[in-house]
């Protein structure tokens, strides 16, 4: 006979399902009945930890599988607020009705953890998610120092240690007020913060996305932070690496370009050593619109509590020019009408050493002409200062120092022709003017300068070509690009030899009037007009000349 397959009665399967459903209901009831007790424990623990008044709007528990596939607890809460303690007769105590803003605000939190616990081992919370975390620390003088030992009469509590395996925070804002009335609060806005293996008293390995206000952009960073120094947060250790992509420099009025930066930092929040590099492929002064490739390698000290930066060394290249700077970029504070401090911008003070550079790179950056008026090697030693303000960077910039041009040539053919004529006449070879029309005359220039408010003042400059030394002083205005210079031209040749021919013969008696200081001739001159159409002439009266345009 064929063997019959055993069959469970239909009611057996139904009983199993009924049993499982009953267990689930019982577990859910137990979890919900445990909610008030767990909620009370959470509030009490936070109150004892911060010596503060704590409120929690809602709290829920449920049972289910954790991320590790284990049976465990899921919890969530909303509307968590923690107030700083009040001081009563010199003793700080929690207060039932807080008179000030909460120390901590948290919109919502979620966590899950396994049910099992091994005695003597830390409790592991598998995951904690926080959303909308706002932390506001008043000055540390208003807070009880966590580092102070507890009074002897307080019993020592043997609390169970807690380890958070993974933490995920979004929309985090942190603010810490300073005891120094001349300092603004330390403030961070963090889009996302992730960390693993968090336990009290140890550094936290993290990755974060931080919103940088100026220039706007996201800083992605990974590293280690802590342990947190409650008594002085600025002294908390930190180290890591960062990338900063597509930072828009146009928020600084007068300049433009998209900056990328990478680097490494270590130290404390208040004293970080930062080494990195920046690349701005389209750096420009907005007024002129010529883009330049700007790269820097920098070594700096940064106060993360204020944003103040001290540049130990910045090695920069702009197109084919190299320069080195060092100095500081510090925030300037001002008391507003509300009696509170406000930042009005940054004060920039730098020492600049242009050691290997081309003048055409700087002229291309700072003029709207497609072709720079001059090319050649340049060296500059200068002090740069940009105070805070609403005006354009170009109008606020002050630059003072000295410069030296080597092998300089004017790109304007008309100007270069006049320079060639000046050189040949200065050597006493006016007869070679036609035969040397294509000859390139290279100039040497050195002098002092002071650029302020868009006006370049040159108190002394020496312009040298074969056969002539020209000494000038005057101004150049970037707005309108107008020239106004006077000085003297010292020639090797006498006036008669400069003119040559029968006219030169007639001028021989005049030679003795122009010979000065060992030169063949010393002639007062002027240069005026615009950068593209300069006018050169004899300034016999020492002032305005009939051919000289009005200033």
Name the poorly predicted regions: 5-27, 87-94, 144-158, 544-551
| Percent strand | over 45%
The structural class is mainly beta
Radius of gyration equals: 38 Å
The tally of strands reads: 27
Sheet having the most strands: 25 strands, mixed
Overall shape: it is elongated
User: How many H/I helices?
Assistant: 7
Helix content: 10-25%
Mean pLDDT: 78
**What's the end-to-end separation, in Å?**
126 Å
Report on this model:
With 551 residues, the chain is mainly beta. It has a domain of 140 residues. Helices cover 15% and strands 50% of the residues. The chain has 7 helices and 27 strands. The strands form 2 sheets. It has a 25-stranded mixed sheet that branches. A two-stranded antiparallel ribbon has the order 3-4. Strand 16 and strand 17 form a beta hairpin. The longest helix is centred in the first third of the chain and has 41 residues. The N and C termini lie far apart (126 Å). The C terminus is likely disordered.
List keywords for this structure.
about 550 residues; mainly beta; 25-stranded mixed sheet; two-stranded antiparallel ribbon; about 50% strand; disordered C terminus
Summarize the structure.
The chain is mainly beta. The chain contains seven helices and 27 strands. It has a domain at 412-551.
């Amino acid at each position: 006979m064929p063997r019959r397959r055993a069959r469970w009665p239909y009611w057996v399967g139904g009983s199993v399902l009924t049993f499982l459903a009953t267990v689930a209901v019982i577990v859910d009831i137990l979890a919900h009945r445990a909610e008030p007790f767990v909620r009370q424990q959470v509030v009490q623990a936070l109150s004892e930890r911060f010596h503060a008044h704590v409120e929690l709007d809602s709290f829920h528990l449920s049972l289910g599988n954790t991320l590790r596939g284990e049976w465990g607890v899921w919890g969530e809460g909303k509307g968590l607020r923690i107030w700083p303690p009040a001081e009563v007769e010199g003793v700080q105590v929690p207060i039932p009705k807080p008179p000030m803003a909460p120390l901590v605000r948290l919109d919502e939190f979620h966590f899950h953890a396994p049910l099992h616990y091994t005695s003597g081992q830390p409790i592991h919370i598998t995951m904690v998610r926080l959303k909308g975390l706002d932390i506001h620390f008043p000055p540390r003088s208003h807070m009880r120092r966590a580092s102070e030992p507890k009074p002897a009469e307080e019993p020592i509590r043997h609390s169970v240690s807690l380890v958070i395996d993974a933490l995920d925070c979004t929309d985090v804002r942190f603010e810490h007020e300073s005891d120094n009335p001349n300092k603004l609060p330390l403030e961070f806005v963090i889009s996302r913060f992730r960390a693993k293996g968090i336990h009290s008293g140890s550094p936290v390995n993290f990755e974060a996305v931080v919103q940088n206000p100026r220039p706007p952009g996201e800083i992605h960073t990974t590293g280690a932070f802590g342990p947190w120094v409650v008594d002085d947060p600025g002294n908390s250790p930190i180290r890591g690496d960062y990338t900063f992509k597509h930072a828009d420099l146009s928020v600084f009025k007068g300049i433009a370009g998209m900056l990328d930066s990478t680097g490494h930092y270590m130290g404390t929040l208040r004293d970080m050593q930062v080494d990195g590099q920046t690349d701005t492929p389209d750096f420009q002064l907005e007024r002129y619109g010529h883009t330049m490739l700007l790269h820097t390698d920098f070594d700096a000290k940064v106060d993360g509590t204020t944003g103040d930066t001290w540049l130990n060394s910045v090695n920069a290249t702009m197109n084919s020019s190299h320069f080195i700077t060092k100095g500081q970029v510090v925030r300037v504070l001002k008391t507003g009408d509300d009696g509170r401090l406000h930042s009005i911008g940054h004060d920039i003070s730098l020492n600049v050493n242009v050691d290997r550079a081309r003048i055409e790179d700087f002229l291309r950056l700072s003029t709207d002409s497609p072709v720079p008026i001059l090319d050649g090697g340049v060296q500059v030693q200068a002090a740069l200062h940009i105070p805070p303000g609403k005006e354009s960077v170009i109008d606020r910039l002050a630059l003072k120092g000295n410069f030296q041009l080597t092998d300089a040539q004017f790109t304007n053919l008309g100007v270069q022709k006049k320079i060639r004529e000046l050189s040949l006449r200065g050597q006493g070879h006016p007869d070679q003017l036609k035969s040397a029309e294509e000859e390139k005359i290279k100039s040497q220039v050195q002098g002092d300068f002071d650029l302020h408010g868009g006006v370049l003042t040159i108190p002394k400059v020496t312009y040298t070509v074969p056969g002539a030394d020209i000494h000038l002083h005057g101004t150049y205005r970037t707005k309108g690009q107008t020239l106004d210079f006077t000085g003297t031209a010292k020639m090797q040749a006498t006036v008669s030899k400069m003119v040559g021919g029968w006219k030169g013969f007639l001028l021989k008696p005049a030679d003795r009037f122009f010979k000065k200081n060992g030169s063949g001739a010393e002639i007062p001159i002027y240069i005026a007009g615009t950068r593209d159409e300069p006018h050169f002439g004899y300034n016999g009266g020492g002032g305005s000349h009939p051919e000289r345009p009005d200033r």
